[in-house]
Amino acid sequence: xxxxxxxxxxxxxxxxxxxxxxxxxxxxxxxxxxxxxxxxxxxxxxxxxxxxxxxxxxxxxxxxxxxxxxxxxxxxxxxxxxxxxxxxxxxxxxxxxxxxxxxxxxxxxxxxxxxxxxxxxxxxxxxxxxxxxxxxxxxxxxxxxxxxxxxxxxxxxxxxxxxxxxxxxxxxxxxxxxxxxxxxxxxxxxxxxxxxxxxxxxxxxxxxxxxxxxxxxxxxxxxxxxxxxxxxxxxxxxxxxxxxxxxxxxxxxxxxxxxxxxxxxxxxxxxxxxxxxxxxxxx
Length: 283
Hints:
single chain; alpha/beta; TIM Barrel; eight-stranded parallel β-barrel; 38% helix
């Protein structure tokens, strides 16, 4: 099987298996730094402007591990004006802590208020141009390329194209990177009846900057819910292996946002990502 591993971009020295850094684990990780974790990902909205003892704890991590910022509230596809003040604050915070990359969701999170959910952007040509223009503006403010994440969705309103066509069009129009969420590819494939491997086959390898792995919940036959609250399912592990074979090994983050397991279980999943990466034949 032909792979595109020779086309893999670099992310300023980040490689291997990462973990979404959550506050409940700060103390444990400071006392016993996890050997399984090569880098951390965190939400800048939770840390920008934080000082005192908690800010010192953050500095402990940013001085010892590479860090990626993964935004939650920029609302790339939202109808309200782009929050340029947030972008500038995030950029200053990234410079202060040496954060390597900023990513956001290809979705929207509200209008005049924050809904704390990821809502799907209509798959239309107009929405492509709108979202891409806002992504380009973020990149202009930051002076660096960002990555946008393919999200899980449960309904598509007024679609003129499918999810894959929309995603590829935005990536091309914005000239940005892709945060490829493998679990979201699987969840959407079940919920909307498409082939997850064909989806991955169509992704330009040079756009993929890093990847996500997470768990989901089986709500009903043919309906999966992306929760980040469970262990990664076997089918998603298999899809990660296929993604590496087609697109090349990329830095990959384990997301676990609630129902936190004991640390050994969590770190075992991070170690499984690293072992999966090491098993991929080198080009």
